[in-house]
Fold:
Amino acid sequence: MKKRRLPALNEDISPVGLGCMSLKGQLQEDKNIIDTALSGGINLLDTADLYQKGLNEEVVGAAIRHKRKDVFLATKVGNQWREDGSGWDWNPRKSYILKAVEASLKRLQTDYIDLYQLHGGTLEDPWEETLEAFDLLKSQGKIRAFGISSIRPNVIRKVLGMSEPATIMMQYSPLDRRPEETVFPMIAESDTRVLVRGAFAKGLLINKSEEPFLDYSAAEVKEIRELITESSLLPEAFLIRVGLLQPAVGSLVIGASSVEQVEKLIFAYRQQEMISDEVVKRISMNIPLNRYTQHR
Structure:
């Protein structure tokens, strides 16, 4: 894969990353998935302490233990599990982040995390102490860079005004083009890069039965899917191309739960290289734009 530059670290990452949330929690099976991704040119692995109550990090850590230098490892913090396991609460406090990173490092069997991301964020969060926590962890060598995960333009604008995260993770696909309005142009002017999640729109633009999505009706979702499939393009390849055409985007984080899905993902990436910008623009012109109505 042709790597893309992450300016904050002056380092290249794969244009497609493996979203590890879809892993099953079975070490050998999940290791095969990760090995297939790595051998296919994917070096970005994205997990979170929230997933499977930490088991996801444990599996990823065990799977890459002997390949750590080949991996750009990203995980997330901010959702604190309750002691009784009934759910989690949002906690972006410095004290919690400094405690949570130690648990993640232990589960991941590593002494550093390449990208440590805040798993959400609102305007009311104590951003000064949150950013202090990330800066401290960087100075200690426990993380190399920090990012946030947010679709809220007002939050993104605030954080960019206070610091410069390496990445911002957000949802983007032909069914969610909201970032095109203000967020992508804003980020493109900085050294921050977007990690896209939801590039396949939950499979609705590939093979999943149509259902409403954001402000699109089920019928409109079907029409958009047919618009893509009638072009004779592999849907996955088209969706990858759509995301990578955006200058602000660093990588598309896409989940896979089997070796076959990873192999198809790698094949789709190779196919997207043959799709012209003109084809994407022509199809996109027939897809209605949606806008942010909240958190502007």
Q: What stands out?
A: The domain at 4-201+240-272 is CATH 3.20.20.100 (TIM Barrel). The chain has one domain: 4-201+240-272. The chain has a mean pLDDT of 94.
